[in-house]
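**User:** My hope is that you can spare some time for a protein that puzzles me. I have put the entry right below:
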Amino acid sequence: MIPLRLAVFALLLPNLAQAADPAEIDKGRAALDAARLAYQKAGPFRETFEFVVEFPDGRKESKGNDYGVGPAKEVFFALTNQGKEIMRFVGREGRMVGTQFNVEGRYAEVPYRGDFAAALRKIGGDQINLTAPPALVASQGGDFQAFLHALRLGILGPLEIVGSRADGPLVEVDLKADNGILTIGIDPATHLPRQARLALGEGKQQVKATGRYTFAPGDPGTALTFPNLAGRSAVATFAELERSGYPLGQPAPKATLRTMDGGTVRLADLQGSVVVLDFWATWCVPCWTGLKHTAELAAWAKGSGLPVKVFAVNTMENTSDPEEQRRLAAELLRAKGLNLPVLLDSGKETFTAFHNPGLPSLVIVGKDGRLARYHSGVVEDMAAVVKGEVMELLK
């Protein structure tokens, strides 16, 4: 879900197209492994990673990750957006607890057995493109491959080291994936990361940002305490937590959207059918995966003969020109080999009217015209899950 969870930091890597130097690749691997071992030997610590995300429409957002390890191996991980905390996880005493700023009555909880990355997966981190920070993975004994996996930030494909070089006081290690490129700047004296840059996506739709790490040895103190859970009830995953914050049961907005061929669709006219809406943008890399599931759902709905409508709602693009938006959407669908019904939310009005569900997200409207189901991020086995929910709503 992009507004809360797009932890990406970007600038194009220099000379990436040149042939990689094996010696520089080896140096890069050694620098990353030295960083892993430095975290592993650090004892209690607290680290922040503050970064600015630049979106294709020119918007910039300040975000941050704050995390640390206590003397008894307790851990915490908090995310901020524009200076405001939006999520917090604390793992200690056999419990992992997760809270979200806009959900007051509930919290998520799973067992915690000293492996923060595993607990975060169990609580549903993968669905919302959230993984354990590399520092926490390393501090809990993660090997090099686990550390490299953590550097993917839950959103990059498998990373390959492509080079390294000295840049002022830092050693910069360059990595690439099939959907982005990453540079980590490491202090050769402490072996700890100090800077990160990443490019996610392609061309005009690329998301860019830069970030800086600040490491502080010692006990993180009160950051490791559980939040006040009085009056709250527990759920098993963060997806359930987010659903509880979405206004299910309310009437769906009566939006009118353009089709790719210049026509219009009035959502109010679809009452009597179950309507599936996948909110996406061409620059939102996780949305690409969601669109594949939505294309499968659309094909199933079309061939089922059931009163089911499936649409991919393109929104939040970096243009106010409807024709340019149509072109961007068409190019992305063509590049990914996708064929599905697309509606164009040119002014972002529909996205706002649907309570800013995030990107990617999926909203299902029941036959009665009310908001019936909500999924943040990309659900595992999404097509099968949504088919089951649609069938329930048709009964």
Summary: The chain has a mean pLDDT of 90. Residues 239 and 376 are 7 Å apart (CA to CA). The chain has ten helices and 19 strands.
